[in-house]
Specification:
This protein has about 375 residues and is of the alpha+beta class. Helices cover about 25% and strands about 20% of the residues. The protein contains 8 helices and 16 strands. It has a 10-stranded antiparallel sheet with strand order 6-7-8-10-9-14-15-13-12-11. It has a 3-stranded antiparallel sheet with strand order 1-2-3, with no helix packed on it. Strands 4-5-16 form a 3-stranded mixed sheet. A hairpin with a 7-residue loop joins strand 4 and strand 5 (about 90-95). It is an enzyme of class 2 (transferase).
Length: about 375
């Protein structure tokens, strides 16, 4: 497998970014700035307008990338609206992303191996990398999404230099959970598209972005399938849900079960979309005191898709619909979105539920 080398030297600098022990370090012997954190920096509760050192650093680096023309276009999502209906879908028109993003890779199967000759994240420029959350060698980094869907849209590239295909590892699920908890913003979201579920690059990556909108899934009623596994049924796309509160805020156990679920789907050839968001146990209060991981099994989508309206991928499953056509945006209805999500879901929840209840009970015991 071919890898491109990253070479960047920074000035020696050590600074505290807030009143805690979070640190950002640039040193001459490291390739990228390092954001240091430990479990003491995880925020298990937050409010709508919260902001942490992690949030500030992402926003700072994202704005710098925008000013330095790292993105393929200036983010200009001027139109956004709540789609009338009970599910509070949020539609945005993003014509620049539709026309100017890199052409998605032609994904041919769930077991498609990494191919170093195709575009992958070892080939991105150093200026696209915001910072490192590991040892500074560039293996675990936060990088720009050069075709942003929303403000702050970036990528978490775990184990980047190991050249892994777009299949979540246990390590990546632990780390993306920690990154969500480093934030104090209720608006930060993390998402993942599997192979054959609209993944655009076959190289392991997660999306992070800020969406200042309250989604239905933040407070949706859930059906308890086991003591730690839930399902969302009152939704056009039935799926699995894990609540961090059910694990008594044990991040590792929470992430491990999420990994076991996606690993089950992966090994059984079932594509999936993942959406991670802050959540509220009491919808009418300002406090966000939980974290939810939603995992939606779905039928396979092969090849490169080009639709006039929207693609049912991770954001759309979460309730954030990125529309690629002005006329469709003006005419979109809840029925349009519901129909597309139901058709893609193909009733796969019930076909996998019993096995995944067994998986969750094994972990619990």
């Amino acid at each position: 497998m071919r890898q491109s080398k990253v070479v960047q030297r920074g000035r020696v600098c050590l600074q505290s970014v807030d009143g805690t022990n979070n640190r950002i370090m640039n040193t001459a012997d490291k390739k990228f700035p390092i954001f240091y954190f430990n479990e003491k920096h995880l925020n298990f509760t937050t409010t709508i307008d919260g902001e942490s050192a992690f949030d500030r650093f992402i926003i700072q680096k994202w704005k710098e990338a925008e000013e330095n023309n790292v993105f393929r276009y200036k983010l200009n999502v001027v139109n956004g609206k709540r789609v009338e209906g009970r599910y509070k879908f949020f539609a945005q028109m993003n014509l620049d992303r539709a026309h100017n993003r890199r052409r998605p890779e032609n994904i041919e199967s769930m077991s498609m191996p990494f191919d170093g000759d195709r575009f992958n994240f070892t080939k991105i420029s150093n200026e696209e990398i915001f910072f490192d959350i590991g040892n500074g060698d560039g293996n675990n980094v936060i990088a720009a999404n050069v075709s942003p869907i929303e403000f702050g849209h970036c990528l978490f590239l775990p184990q980047r230099l190991e050249c892994l295909p777009q299949i979540p590892t246990e390590f990546s699920l632990v780390k993306i959970t920690e990154l969500m908890l480093l934030s104090k913003s209720s608006y930060l979201r993390a998402t993942f598209n599997s192979l054959c579920a609209h993944a655009s690059v076959n190289h392991l990556h997660w999306h992070l972005y800020y969406l200042k909108y309250n989604l239905f899934i933040e407070t949706a009623d859930l059906e308890q399938a086991s003591s730690i596994l839930y399902v969302i049924r009152d939704y056009p796309a039935p799926g699995f849900c894990l609540k961090l509160s059910s694990f008594h805020n044990d991040v590792k156990s929470f992430a491990v079960l999420a990994f076991k679920i996606v690993n089950y789907l992966q090994t059984h050839g079932i594509p999936y979309n993942v959406y991670i968001t802050r959540a509220q146990s009491s919808p009418n209060e300002a406090l966000y005191d939980d974290l939810r991981i939603y995992i939606w099994p779905r039928k396979k989508s092969f090849g490169i898709k080009d639709t006039r309206g929207f693609v049912p991928a991770c954001c759309e499953y979460g309730g954030h619909v990125s529309v690629r056509n002005e006329q469709f945006y003006e005419e979109i209805t809840e029925a349009d979105i519901t129909s597309e999500l139901k058709e893609a879901g193909d009733n796969l929840l019930d076909k996998t539920l019993k096995d995944l209840i067994d998986v969750s009970e094994l972990l619990e015991n």
